[in-house]
Amino acid sequence: GARSPAAEQLQVYLTTIPLPSVESPSDNYFWLVND
Predict the structure, then answer these.
(1) Closest Cα partner for 12 from 27, 25, 31, 30?
(2) Which of 1, 9, 19, 23 has the fewest C-beta atoms lying within 10 Å of its C-beta?
(3) CA-to-CA distance for 27 and 9, rounded, in angstroms?
(4) Which superkingdom (predicted)?
(5) Neighbouring residues of 32: CB distance < 8 A, sequence distance ≥ 6
């Protein structure tokens, strides 16, 4: 999970707005690793 309110808001922002990278498994893995 998010380690701070700012990080949580960033995650919400990234998961709310449909970005092309969201459809890429490798990019999803990248975000998971950096969470």
Answers:
(1) 31
(2) 1
(3) 19
(4) Eukaryota
(5) none
Q: Which two tokens stand for residue 9?
A: 């808001």
- Residue 35 has what pLDDT? 56
Can you give the residue range of the structural domain that contains 3? 1-35
Quick count: other Cβ atoms within 10 Å of Cβ 27?
A: 13
Altogether, the residues listed in the chain come to a count of 35
CB 22 within 8 A of CB 28: yes
Tokens of 2: 């998010």
Nearest-angstrom CA–CA distance, 2 and 10: 9
